[in-house]
Amino acid sequence: MTYLVVDNCIKCKHMDCVEVCPVDCFYEGENFLAINPDECIDCGVCEPECPANAIVPDNALNGAELEKWMDINTKYSNIWPVITQKRDAPPDAEDWDGVPNKYEEHFSEAPGEGD
Ligand code: SF4
Ligand code: F3S
Hints:
two-stranded antiparallel ribbon, binds FE3-S4 cluster, 4 strands, binds iron/sulfur cluster, alpha+beta, globular
């Protein structure tokens, strides 16, 4: 099992999650963070830290949704830099909270800065 970052993180990117992870398995994109499923120890401490409710245990997803977010977290956590120190959320983070289909319409493949 692993936890996964899902759609509502995109362009919200509060980054509260990264500071609590005991195994430093968050990786930073330009407007999204990914968890590395092979490194996550399934401790669950990041889930309640996210103001956008964008972190879920993999068993909360099913079928195509599970496959989609497992693939996205796996792919990008292997190419983006690790991030362990919180920085400020984007100034318009609140405006993006709850906007649907962010992955399809707003996701950036570009890496973030990392630590
Ligand atoms: Fe890190 Fe634990 Fe969250 Fe996995 S569940 S990403 S180990 S804080
Ligand atoms: Fe994203 Fe939530 Fe972390 S918005 S960056 S998963 S705190």
